[in-house]
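Model it.
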Amino acid sequence: MRRVSDSDVSSVRDFYDALAPDYHRIFGDWDASMAHQATVLDALVRGRLGSGPHRVLDCACGIGTQAIGLARAGHRVVGSDLSPVAAARAAAEGAARGARLRVAVADMRRPPFAPAAFDVVLCADNALPHLLTGPDVEAALAGMRRVLRDDGLLVLTVRDYAETRRSRPAAAPPQVSETSDGRTIAFQLWHWHEDGERYDLEHFQLVPKGAGWAVRVRRTTYWALTRAELTHFVEAAGFVDVEWHAPAAGGYYQPVLTARRRTARRPAR
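Modeled.
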């Protein structure tokens, strides 16, 4: 299995550095989406850990879509991200909305926080599949486990890749968003690797420019991890009570995995 190289890390960082100024264009109403996602995630957290508020690490916070909403819901949130541009925007957008949000630039494989510092670790928006090898996924989950308290909650959201791995689509359907700063057209091209599991993504955004359009293209790579594969990695990392929450049932736009940090007092089942 190939190793993640410095160029792979730079590719992910460059992708989100470039996308950060336009990331809100993915949503027709970014603030409404923040509020909805926070409602769903907050219910998952409080339903498993009690009313709180809770200490939350969003270890792939991007521009703050989940972190800001959870902070405004009353949780004590820290956001970290590999992209310094995205992290800086998360801090600015949180401050503009009155959210108390601490932000750090960090690699999710090496979270720079004390052991047991958080009640919840969140990794949303299909961020984990940017890690392209088993050892790197293992390192990230070990880091998340280290900074969680005993019986703390892990929350991951990812694409549902089962059918995608079978059909290997060449593209994702185009999306049109009406935002406060104009209409945005977005689409993706997927270039599959020979292993049939990883793909290079080209993300196109057409944004208004004068009487025409500006075309912005960003590129990165994903590992199309299935639910079974991710469940295996999570359990092997020392988590128990793994549950999957489908969008139709939970209301989140991607499948959500929740799990608890195993403790010495609570053996794995």
